[in-house]
Amino acid sequence: MGVRGSSLAALLGIFVTAISAAAQEPQDLSTLSRDDVLALQRRLVDAGCYNGPLDGNTGPALSQAIKICPVQQPFLSIETGMHTAPIVGIATDAACRLAATASHDKTVRMWSLPDGRLLRTQRLPIGDGNLGKVYTVAVSSDGKWVAAGGWDAIYAIGDPNKRDGIYLFDSATGTQVRHIGSFGNVLNHIVFSPDNKLIAVTLGGNEGVRVVDIASGREVMSDRQYGAQSYGFAFARDGMMYTVSYDGFLRQYGPDFVLKNKVTLPGGQQPLSVAVDPEGKRLAIGYFDTTAVDIVDAKTLKPIAAADNRNTEYNLGSLAWSPDGQYLYGAGRFRAFLNGAWRHPIRKWTRDGQQVGSDVPVSENTVTLANCADAIAFGAQDPAWGMLRTDGTAVTLGLARIPDMRAKRGTAFVVSADGTRLRFGLGIGEDRPVLFDLASGLTEALGPTPPDLHPPTITGINIAKWEGEFNPTLDGKPLGIDQYELSRSLTIRPDRTGFLLGTEFRLRAYTVEGKLRWSQQAPSLTFGVNLARDGEIAIAAYGDGTIRWYRWSDGKPLLSLFVHKDDKRWVAWTPTGYYMASPGAEDLIGWHVNRGWEQQADFFPVARFRNQFNRPDIVRLVLQTLDESAAVRQANATSRRAEQTTTILAQLPPVIRLKDYDNGGTYSFSSENLSLDYELRSPSGKAVDRIDVMVDGRPQQAVGLSMRSADSAQVRTDKINVTFPKHDVDVALIAWSGEIASEAARFKLKWTGQQESDLLKPKLYALVVGVSDYVEPDLKLAYAAKDAADFGKVLQAQSGGMYGTVTIKLLTDTKVTRDSIVEGLAWLEQQVTSRDIGIVFLAGHGVNDEKLNYWYLPYDASLANLRTRGVVQDDIRRTLRNLAGKAILFLDTCHAGQVMKVAARSADTDQTAMINDFIKAENGVIVFASSQGKEVSVELKDVQNGAFTKALIEGIGDGKANLLNKGNITPSQLDAFVVERVKELTHGTQHPVMSKPDTVPDFPFAIVRK
Q1: Are the C-beta atoms of 237 and 229 separated by less than 8 Å?
Q2: How big is the CA angle at 901 (ends 897 and 905), to the nearest 5 degrees?
């Protein structure tokens, strides 16, 4: 069969893996509890692999099911709403309404055109390493089907009769139709026939090409007489077929699938792609090994012209014809120096190969093209994707959201002695520097590099050829890394007893003699390495945007970090999934759980498992203990928590899907009464007891269910009748298994019925609380009570404008007790109707207990009496969640420095976990917080307010947050103003945050008062 896989991928250094969650499903089934075994059995029934009894007992039938089914161990993966690894395939329908992209991140994403909105993420079965990487995608011309493939995870089961097939999906629902074929090697290229009845694939190794009938899955054509891998296949409208292969040949097949002709080509020895013009008269051939583009006669296969390839570097291996056949477009590894930078452009030629106009830069990495009606779609390995319009302008519709880890060498990747603080750029090298501190979180790295952070050491041992070469040496002798494994980064231990080498594929640790101590498979290219703790901790910066810590002694992973390139949200996690995250960042990683070969996999953000896995205390201990298990034991001993042993599979939330409404889609409605058809299942096997209907992020109605545990392996289909308000709304359905909530099935409704005059203004109710004069002398603050009073006045001024009335319940200093706050919360819940807005404002001290629960401190509370006099976050969340109208929480409570002075024991004052809890879709609360992480909120003597409240007063009261000049202020506008104003007031030491559930639309909640 030859070498399995793609030499192109190897040469380009593309090596991306899923993040494996070790120890979530032990290989020894005897270690699982009965409930865990039962959950696994139900999962395998859903996957179509198990037909034994659902009894929670192990046995031969269960063991056999595990062998033939996709691995059920969950995988922890990054999710940003965009690909996190190179896009290597793109396809569209004929009408240019749908685009599909394929990536080495093991997903296919479908996008609406021309707006570029993400419709859904298709998740194929995956495994460790390469298993599940997607190399190619195709869309039928009518847009009905999407086909994808690559390095199939089915290879893992070792069954030669089920190996490397096509995954076929319904584009409208995302439902997988079938897994077609067993082709014997990776799928490099997939294409539909013009009548959408056939699918052709080209394969790795020397497996050649196949054509299958979609309806039956039957193989109707096979040619295995290829001398190397093939990447190009094209159908002509008259039924002729053309392929190219690295064996140097262009092949022509008739409509009867018989080989008609086979010729070598003048442009190069490794033809990569073939594109046939709309009339079926000309072929364009691109190459991997040269910059040539040949145009040949489709009938005779004789050369007609060579396209103008002047001023090109690398290849133009991807080609597409315009719909009228008058123009040819080319791209690939081809790059040019344009507008002062090296970029990867698209070139345009006439049908005879004469260049038309200037090259159009579209990417910083290799580009792939696809026809799209009167435009050209492009995908790039940044990752990025977009459209080249007929007027020659390019628009990028999807852009990488991962940090660019290229050139993380020298001062671009510096770390503290203990490994807990590091500085790096979110862009190439040192561009857009940030400072991550495991204790306090992420901040912009203003000013010079702190002197206590050190760069990697690259001197002291004679290592050469490690900067971008294939054969690094030690004392002139090759280190013997793998073929195609380009060396990227180096650091040497302080005691000169060893060194760390980062490559395309691996992170490698060596002794000073050049003996390999260990190597770890890299999730992507290893662009930077460093060491800490006198060389006992290894740290690597990878092309997937992650930074990862390892134990030097054996290479065991300790910790991972991901930072969103644009909004700087971040999440850090341990190998088994304990995590800490900045506000709103819990959706950046999640668990991928395979179902069957015929079903799309499930994906659950880590927020769904917050109660067990949101453990900042464990994350912060890992680099101290150098062992995750030890960190867990130490953290549990401190917090008096019992060890959690429930597996992920046993606590998976329900999955709900609307049948007639795409997730995130927009639909018109003219009658307020709608019937919503849904599908529901429970992957864990737990009973599902209700469905909540949310409108604009707030509860509209709850529908009770009795989907028993015994029925939960099946898909339930039913409908809900809902009455909606007569205006545009955001709708979400959330299913519940006890206290476990599903991800929201979301869509928008645009009202097109008769417009009704609305003479009733909403009302605003606010519970405003501030404490300066605490009983504990060391807790006293200067302006918290004044902050509350001043903020209340700002809200009161909105009466008669946006609101019919504004009612404020103001509590300050001695009036602030546990009882008064609880009574105030009850009052708020009673008053707010579905038309109104409820606000809670808290100024003073807040603190976390040993179990990380957040408590607000009334005037007579302290750390010693939290449970009798403090107000816990559950009380606040319960009220805000139950409000009939919109809910906003303002927190100015992170005055941690004073609390620490009176603490008889250590106190954690990080309110991040509370914020993330409140902004879950099922709670629907918008949260403004004065600071992030463990930052202290600043009080300003010159203005006699806290910096955060001062910014709120200016933003709302003075109208300065009216950033769009429309006379009103939305939460997003207020957030943008407050962030910059607080930064200015505190000279960059305090960073407010606003977090909002995706189900809650941005809305005006204040107007500018003249």
Answers
A1: no
A2: 110
Q: Evaluate the CA torsion angle 830, 917, 442, 900 in order and state its sign.
A: positive
Share of the chain residues as helix, strand and coil, in percent rounded to the nearest 5: 15, 40, 45
Give the CATH number of domain 764-1007; options: 1.10.10.10, 3.30.300.30, 3.40.50.1460, 3.40.225.10.
3.40.50.1460
Q: Cα(89)–Cα(77) distance, rounded to whole angstroms?
A: 21
pTM of the model: 0.90
**What CA–CA distance (Å, rounded) separates 867 from 56?**
40
Interstrand relation of 806-812 and 764-770 (parallel, antiparallel or unpaired): parallel
- 10 — pLDDT class (breaks 50, 70, 90): very low
Q: What is the pLDDT of residue 17?
A: 30
Environment class of 196 (CB within 10 Å of its CB; exposed 0-12, middle 13-18, buried 19+): middle
CA–CA distance, 798 with 1010 (Å, rounded to integer)? 11
Q: Cα-atom radius of gyration of the chain, to the nearest Å?
A: 30
Q: How far apart are CA 151 and CA 135, in angstroms?
A: 7
> Three-class SS of residue 934?
coil
Nearest alpha carbon to residue 856 among 784, 964, 953, 782: 784
Distant-in-sequence, close-in-space partners of 180: CB < 8 Å, separation ≥ 6: 165, 166, 167, 168, 199, 212, 214, 217
Reported confidence tier of residue 911, pLDDT bands at 50, 70, 90: confident
pLDDT tens-place string over residues 461-487: 999 999 989 999 999 999 989 888 999
When the candidates are 2.40.30.20, 2.60.40.2310, 3.10.50.40, 2.130.10.10, the CATH number that belongs to 265-393 is: 2.130.10.10
CATH 3.40.50.1460 placement within the chain = 764-1007
Residue 817 has pLDDT above 90, yes or no: yes
Fold (CATH) for 410-568: Thrombin, subunit H (2.40.10)
SS3 967: coil
Range(s) within the chain of domains with CATH label 2.60.40.10: 653-751
SS3 104: coil
Q: Which amino acid is at 781?
A: L
Residue 403 CA: distances (Å) to CA of 294, 435, 544, 569? 38, 13, 8, 11
Q: Residue 58: CB partners within 8 Å, gap ≥ 6?
A: 29, 30, 32, 37
Q: How many Å apart are CA 509 and CA 742, to the nearest integer? A: 43
